[in-house]
Amino acid sequence: MNALIVDPRDNVIVAIEPVAAGDTVTYLVDGEPASLTAAEDIIIYHKLAIRDIQKGEPVVKYGEHIGAATTFIPAGAHVHVHNVDSIKEDRRAKE
C-alpha cells in the first residue's frame, strides 16, 4: 500500500510515499484493496483523485467537502491548490 483513504466517501487518497507518473497506487477501502494509476508525479502526503472529479464538484477528504474543483481533475491526478478552491470555515461566525 502506498496511499490511504481516510473515509469511504472520499474522492481523494493521500500518497504515503512518493509516487511517480505511471505507478500503480494501492490503498484499502473498507478493508478491500483498490488501485489506480498515477497520472503524474505525486509527492508524499499529497492527494490524488480516485475518480474523475468534474469542475465545480466538491473535493471530499475525511468524509467532508474540503473544496471545489476549479477544473476537471482526472482519476490519478494530483489534487492540490492548483486545481481546488479550498473551503475556509469562518470560525468567528460560530462564536
Describe the structure.
This protein is mostly beta strands. The protein is 0% helix and 38% strand. It is built from no helices and nine strands. It has strands spanning 3-4, 12-15, 24-29, 32-37, 47-49, 58-61, 64-69, 78-79, 84-86. The strands form three sheets. It has a four-stranded antiparallel sheet with strand order 1-2-5-8, with no helix packed on it. Strands 6-7-9 form a three-stranded antiparallel sheet, with no helix packed on it. Strand 3 (24-29) and strand 4 (32-37) form a beta hairpin. The chain is globular. The termini are far apart.
SSE layout and pairing:
Blueprint: E1 3-4, E2 12-15, E3 24-29, E4 32-37, E5 47-49, E6 58-61, E7 64-69, E8 78-79, E9 84-86
Antiparallel strand pairs: 1-2, 2-5, 3-4, 5-8, 6-7, 7-9
Strand content: 35-45%
Strand-and-helix sequence, N→C?
EEEEEEEEE
State the end-to-end CA separation: 41 Å
- Give me the Rg, rounded: 13 Å
Strand order of the largest sheet: 1-2-5-8
Largest sheet: 4 strands, antiparallel
Mean pLDDT rating: 93
Low-pLDDT residue spans: none
Number of strands: 9
Number of H- or I-type helical stretches: 0
* Silhouette: globular
- Helix amount, in percent? under 10%
Give descriptors for this structure.
95 residues; mainly beta; four-stranded antiparallel sheet; three-stranded antiparallel sheet
